[in-house]
User: Fold these one by one.
Assistant:
Number 1:
Amino acid sequence: MINRMAGGEFYEQVFVARQPVFTRDKGLYGYELLFRGSADSAGAVFPDEDMASSKVFVDGLSLACSGVAENIRFFFNFSRQMLLNESALALSSERCVIEILENVPPDESVLSACLDLREQGYCLALDDYAGEPEREPFLPLVDMVKVDVRAVNRSHWARLFEKLHEYGATVVAEKVETWGDFRELHSLGYELFQGFFFSRPELIPGRKLPSGMLAKVQLLKVLGDPKSPLEEIPAIVAGDPGLSLRLLKFINSAAFGFRSHILSIGHASALMGLEPLRRWAMVVGLCDIDDSVRGQELTYLSLQRARFLELLAQEIPNPPMASEALFLLGLFSRLDAMLGMSMDEVLAGVALDPQLTEALLGADCTLGRWLQMLDALERGDGQRAATMVNAWGVESSVAAHCYMGASAWASEKVWTYRTHS
């Protein structure tokens, strides 16, 4: 959302979401960055295209790159005007992919701009393609084509892949919603995959939660429970040998710079402080559940959700629960996907507050609507998310600021874990 300031200057508050793009073996290829104005679901509200591109490239990319490996690529949506005004030159041709939006016509000026970008080493992708004949002039010029599988009849998925493959393009399946769709598209040869299938549990019939994983979930619950006395946290950490070893390795790292070696959990907790120790243990406990590439992305998403709900609760006059409880709600909200089990199976052995359990099981209740707001943000529906937070008494700009802060916090925590684990 843009507000006009004195002197005619503008500042904007924009929700920045990232959607992962996965390879055939579920490795991470890159992220599409979604910039949504807090009052507009179609995109950020800017006075002109140049300002939009500068906001995206300067603020958004720096945030998105935090803690991300150098081989990971970023996809940016480009309008006709952005293609013509050479906005792409602000981006690295090695790391960034230029996505040509579905409403960009393949006129002579646009095709010439695309050819110039190709010659300068930029990777071009055609977004939301569903086989439209009028968009075919783009096909010889692009390196990737993102097929909107929801807009294409399932019986035509194979034929469309074969057609695009003849052009030599990498074919990306986007809006992949289920693991069944992923497996079918994978069998047809599609090379990259984007959609919310990754955040859903890949259910395996008869699968049981291993005792070690159940212990970690229980540990997260105890650590996240605002009723748990802080002075008991060192004993909880000391009771988990793996967690204790990680803590001592972490606090003896160069990041702290202590001259003498720290040998006990008690000494470590005294140096860190009880609240930082609790947060550190929760981050590590979550990261340990699934260390696959997909698991790392779900860990980031869970931490971002947790921190955002916590920060948002602190801005609301009368939040439905304490901010610490809402942190736990966000933290647990993707455990089903991380563990490959339904949420009711995950929570069967965990004694949570009934309100949290109700929301996590998908009920349309007060806390359930907080999770619905998160889903809207992650799908790029800034308008719906803004409407919901406004109804709770929070300005959209404040919520967007909280979201940016949560993203930075989650990136830093995941990076710290990877660096010191």
Note: The chain has a mean pLDDT of 80.
Number 2:
Amino acid sequence: MLNNRNLAVVFVVAFAALLACPSASAEDGSKVPSLDFNKDSKEPVIINGDTVEYNEAGKTASANGNVSIIYQDLKVTCRKAIFHSDTKEVIAEGDVILTQDKNYFKGEKVVYNIETKTGTVIKPNVFIDPTFYGGGEKAEKLDKDHYYIKRGFVTTCEREHPHYRVQSKQLNIYLDDRVTASNILLFVGNVPIFYFPYYSHSLKDKHPGVTVIPGKNDDWGYFVLTSWRYYINDNLRGRIHIDYREKRDFAYGITTNYGTEDYGSGIFRFNYFDEKKERIWSSRPEEGLDSPGSEVRRYRAQMRHKWQMDPITQGVFEFNKMSDTNVIKDYYIKDYQRDMVNSNYASVIRADKYYTTSLLAQKRMNRFDSVVEYLPQVKIETTSIKIGKSSFYYDGLASVSNLNKLEPSPVNSVASTNRLDTNNKLSYQSTLFGWLSVTPFAGTRQTFYSRDLEGDNNFVRGVFFTGTDVSTRFYKAYDYNSRMWNMEINGIRHVIAPSVKYSYTHEPTVNRSKIGQFDEVDNIGFENVITPSLENKLQTKRIVGGKMTTVDLARFMISTNYNFATETDKGGKLGNYNLSFESKPYNWMRILSNAVYNPHRARFESFSFNFAGNPELDFDNQDLRQEVYTDLTRKRWGYGGGYRWDNDLGSLIESQFMFNVTPKWKITAYNRLDLKRFGTAVDGTPKKFINSMAEQEYRVSRDLHCWIGDFVYNISRDHGHTFMVIFRIKAFPDVPIEFEQNYNPPMFGSAMPPG
């Protein structure tokens, strides 16, 4: 037996037979014994302490006082420890700290196997990467990636007294995967606020787990909106919503994202609004529920499923059911503003090499919707099949449809028919002079209807059409490089692409006034139109995503048409000019402008100008405010704005500004001003609104360590004043703070943003 005091003695411990080796030198130069349990070991076990003893018979090393044990990425510090060289087990006691793989355990006693990397910690304090903290009666590392905590808690707050914690009798943590627990309580401070029979949270999920929004507005009075994120596994996760509104009572909802291994994935939402208290307007007057105090149970159910059956076959199913028309306006303001269509259909599309086959079934589910039902429609479509070795190409289409056009009840059905439609086109692709592309085409369309609008017997409508497409492309490159205004320009290429399309459609054998108008197939009439267009582009090369890429620095396009068959209201045949301008002066900026000019009235019919710090922003389909939140919040500052004007609808200005004052403070301002808007007054008469502020929102956001806090003040023409305080628990402290969740207006209610 060897014994040294007040000296750091190093023992080299390996994994095989016991062998002796020469002595080593201590730090003070004195000779101390050193033992090697495997002369071939590449990873020794190093034991330091005030006293270190080795028992050869028991194959154990004992250390006392300022003990440290090091093996690979494992380090154990404690007051005393025993290491068993044969079993590779360490028993450490007294202020034990164990670190490995960026994970940290602190406890009274640790039993740990350095080879299997499993063990137990008594009365632990735990840090598990990525920043999960915990404690309890006992912690066990069951394998490399699985931790178990008995009668303990986990949190993302590293403070001695965490701001919040999830407490349970049994907690399982799977690194880089999930946390699971049963019969848990969520504590804020020392106050229990919610019970879950089972809880699972993905460690890959960076969204806030819990969101609480108290506030007040004119429509709801005082309200509290809550969202509780749940995670069963990667294929089943979502949110549970529990809301309270002073003037509307309670509301409940669930959002579920699901997936299957073989049958696709989708999302399901259901929201229920139990309006039992003071009601400020009627949602369903046709049912006589227009008196204050009436009890109305309102709901919205949504489902969308997508299934990739095989590499070329895809199925999509969508379901939307609502209690009444006004539920969208009352609780889903974004869907209402976008005039979102609530479709109910099932579709299967198979895209082979030469043709595409599709099956569509569409049914009305809400009696107040105007819908064209397809019960069903089968379609086969070919795409430019080359005929032999010639330059001729064939395009064909055939469809069979059972159609029913429904208007809101009590009107209901206004037209129905069975329709067989065929469309056959032959084209010839040629190039003249080596630079001019010319593609003439001709075809015929034959459509069978089982009945007309009057319900008469079946008939066939025939249509002949012809035309040609002519286009070319010119470009010239310029060796011009510039960093003016920090704009990255590495050469300039100017591209000019003119094109002309001529289309002639003979008068159909049956006038469209006698045919029910179900879709574009039925609205065919006489046409004799030439459509010229001109595209100009300035291109350069920039580093985008780490790669040198060609980008459009600026793009301008103008198009119009000349209709030989139709006179306009002032006698001309020339159509409107459509103008479009787009620019990306920087990788982080996009500018888009569109205009329609009427040459006969010598005026613009519409004009829009939009800019934002997102080069990929789709201004037609996205919400400016949401995009600014989403894409600019990780920058110091951001902005966005737009101006839209239409002769028939009015004009408005929209602007958004965001500034990160400090790493913990952020301010955001949003404004939407109607310069002119045509609408309806309270009494139902037409009214023009001038310089009317449609909406303002001001937000102050604060990083509260484990929480994100927002104070929001919103003024809306439609919904009055709204005050909100938003608290969100961070998923992980090391994840950048996500301020982009847009809870304004709070009309989302129980349908808060999914995901």
Note: Helices lie at 326-331, 333-337, 624-632.
Number 3:
Amino acid sequence: MNPDKCSPDTAEDMEPAESFIQQAMEIIIQEAVKKGTNVKEKVCEWRPPEQLKELLDLELKDTGEPESKILQRCRDAIRYSVKTSHPRFFNQLFAGMEPHSMVASFITEAIKTSLYTYEVAPVFTLMEDAVLKTMMELIGWKDGGDGLFNPGGSMSNMYAVNLARYYYCPDFKETGIYGSPRLVMLTSQELFKKIVDLIGNYFYFTSIRGFPTCITEPSPNNYNFLLHNHDMNFKLVVAINVLTVSLLYLIRANSVAWNLHKMLMATLQCSAFLVRDKSCLLQRCHCAGASYLFQQDKFYDVSYDTGDKSVQCSRKPDAFKFWLMWKAVGTRELENRVDRRLVWDDLCLFSCFKYSLFLNVLLQPEFANVCFWYIPPSLRNLPDGPELRKKLHAVAPVVKERMMKSGTMMIGYQKHGDKPNFFRMVVISPQVKRQDLDFVLEEIHRLGKDL
């Protein structure tokens, strides 16, 4: 140990740190932003795990490396990562680059604060409160409610389950699972994978989707339960002039999970959880009352200390990423963004019809997913039956492998029920052009025509 470096009188010089950050930001702009959104660049430079381990030199050592080498590490991390902002990335329900949200992410990392007490995060506490209140107004909750931002929709689903259980079993914390009534959760096979069926005899919770992950989502019948709507989209709550079934369920819902990092392209992760309850159910369910954080004799209104609403207490100020974006573009532009995505899906569907080697799983998709099979020439004359389905099931995985290794684009695939593997294409990025949709189908044919 060097006593001089450990002396309390020796402060770290910030000039080298500032210089490093400036150089790193240049790399981010050039490699991640400019190249990452350039259609002429690859979506990914695929490497198998063992080869990538060698390229990245993952071993951590006792001594540090020079700045030039660390900057190269930054370049390599970007180079070998998947460019989800690329116009030909259609693999997930998130894609594209939103500059205002990205800058907000930079700011929250630079500020390096945590969202649990007003004294530590005054700005972001008020911003989260303002965003949540406006979102509640948009979905028709005139009397308001409660809520918070979570690290993803699955976490919001878990919160909804927790609150429903606590609502019906308020002594659950003391009695535990074996001392409480057996509960039943009602969901569907189409729902997000983190929601599971619970077998029991007390019907307390049901969950529906506003934005199907896979194909479509049926509507529930409403009896004596708490209704949770997972993953609503902005178009449904802003621009609908006639009450649809989806909007009716949204207004009646007891809780809503709203993933803003999907169609609205906020940087990951940005997920709002809204609760119509105004009796502090969220806090009563999750509170631990840590005395070192939530003193009740503070000099300000302690209702702004939101940490006890969360099971994790400390949270990143994700609401700022949506607040800054909303401020920059306004409500109408957010609505227009969703409109444009739906137009692209119609164009994608039309392109599938245009190319005779593609067959849509649904003739008319209900929202933003276009699911289709690629039928290689060798299978075109086979009658529908077990042999065709077996061979068709093997097509998408091979095409996906070739696609990844060439780096030209990314599209997901999956099976559904007894249906063989099909491609699941989601058009989110505003950088997508008509020729990109044609390229997708032509590239799939190029990669799979010999199968």
Note: The mean pLDDT is 83.
